[in-house]
Amino acid sequence: MSLIDDAAAVRLNAYAPYSKFKVGAALKTASGAIYVGCNVENVAYPEGTCAEAGAIAAMIAAGDTSFAEVAVIAESPSPVPPCGGCRQKLAEFADAGARITMATTGGVKQNMAVADLLPGAFDAGHMGSV
Asked: Which of 41, 52, 69, 92 is catalytic?
């Protein structure tokens, strides 16, 4: 089973009663552990939480703090990139050289480095002597 397959499987569990737009994400750590997440909407926050944030939360809850690869999938005409907030989270928890695969349920894929998602990302180095 590939990381895209894992993301596609969890996508089916997404709770998207308002947008009907289901997104799944799966990430893999350097040790090979896989964590998944899907978007979750609610009436107070109808745009919901993102799939990538859910996968990162699962990874952190399990005690891991970085990943080597991530995949995101949605039913869309073109691969859907992570939102701005998720780009920051992905940048913060990605291993050096981590890759992202963005895919559609129709089989279109786009691959790139996680670092290329958010040029100039904020990191701990920006806090200087704090």
From this structure: 52
